[in-house]
Amino acid sequence: MPGRRLGRWALLCCLLAPAAICRELDGAEIRLSEDCPPGYLEREGRCHLVSLYDQYASFTGQGGLRAALPPPARSYTAAQIDLGRYLFFDPLLSRERDMSCANCHRPALGFSDGQARAMGRDPAIPAGEPATGRLLPRNTPGLWNIGFFRLLSWDGKRTDLVAQSLAPVFAADEMNLDAGELARRLRQSAYGALLARAFGKDERYRTLPLVEQAAHALAAFQGSLVSLNSRYDYYVFGANDALSEQELRGLTLFRSFDTRCSECHTPPLFSNQQLATLGVPEPVGKPFDSGAQAVFGREDLRGAFRIPGLRNVALTAPYMHNGVFGQLEDVVKFYADGRGNSASPAEALKIHWHIVHPRLDPQQQGDLVAFLRALTDTSHMPRIPTSLPSGLSISAR
């Protein structure tokens, strides 16, 4: 039975979890885990995800429940993933040593930050002086399942997780560190030895500079953030009582021609990994964001942004590229009220042809929201370190 097979894999993941964290610290010495994260098994020295979606051959379906996951871009060892975990939470990667990746990608908030737009810093402030906050143009995206995605930034500019991992570190209005200073800090802290331990025997990465090894470690950790054990997944694999009647009605609507949600938010990642123009309104006082047009120079991509995955979407409010909608109910109403196009009439936008006017009544809108909430799963939440190789305090949790 599919449901029983799912239960066996879930049990396996639970059995793996304690082993993955049991050797984290040895007195003052940081020891990297030799065990793959929950949900992964070691094969030929590297960690590989084990999922019931592995049994399907195609990942090109348009809304079908049982479709395969796209292959991850890279595989890593347990030690490389664990090293990335430390780096992710370490403020050593910011100029003033006061901001880590986790400041904007908070685990409890779906690895987003709960803000309409990300908070950066003013790059004009001299080094050594207290930084002041500066709103960035866009909302902070969540990171669950990010290792499967091709488009990583809202405008489609970033397509490689290794390169993206250090982009905020080097951005003047974010963590504002340069590559030379990062290399010096890594070399002079415990990270020098940890990077050698994690990458020194790996033929693919051992000759890379420290900064590039750190980028791979961060990508390894972020790529291990997998959410595939929601109640929706249990339903897909045979647990017919996993979803409530309201959630089932929402699933039916989600897949219907009345809404066409699943044509863009395609299972199992709930994204077709494309760009789309929806006509999302800008917050009052904020100029229109041209999105992917500025990256690719195409008029048809004016106002286009990546189609995000919807797993753990209930945790990542507010929504859209600019955080203009505070609740899932607002997002569903946006689509239901007028074909999605709420941008200024002065903008000649080519709204994606899948955006229809579903004319959903309040109950149907509530059903859709209930289904979206059923996509929540944080069972493979990584452990936040209790101490860091840099000796700094953890600045965000």
Named at the architecture level, the CATH assignment of the domain at 242-373 is: Orthogonal Bundle
Q: What is the percentage of strand-forming residues?
A: 5-15%
Instruction: Spell out the helices and strands N to C.
Output: HEEEEHHEEHHHHHHHEHEHH
Give the radius of gyration: 21 Å
Draw up the topology in text.
Elements: H1 2-21, E1 25-26, E2 29-30, E3 40-43, E4 46-49, H2 78-88, H3 101-104, E5 119-121, E6 133-135, H4 161-170, H5 179-188, H6 191-199, H7 210-223, H8 231-236, H9 245-254, H10 261-264, E7 275-277, H11 293-296, E8 304-306, H12 328-338, H13 362-373
Antiparallel strand pairs: 1-2, 3-4, 5-6, 7-8
Helix pairs in contact: 2-7, 4-7, 9-13, 12-13
Q: Explain this structure to me?
A:
- There is one protein chain.
- By secondary structure, this protein is mainly alpha-helical.
- The protein has a domain at 242-373: Cytochrome c-like domain (Cytochrome Bc1 Complex, Chain D, domain 2).
- Helices cover 31% and strands 6% of the residues.
- It has helices at 2-21, 78-88, 101-104, 161-170, 179-188, 191-199, 210-223, 231-236, 245-254, 261-264, 293-296, 328-338, 362-373, and strands at 25-26, 29-30, 40-43, 46-49, 119-121, 133-135, 275-277, 304-306.
- It has a two-stranded antiparallel ribbon with strand order 1-2. The chain has a two-stranded antiparallel sheet with strand order 3-4.
- Strand 1 and strand 2 (29-30) form a beta hairpin.
- Helix 4 (161-170) crosses helix 7 (210-223).
- The protein is globular and about 60 Å long.
- The relative contact order is 0.16.
- Residues 1-28 have low confidence and may be disordered.
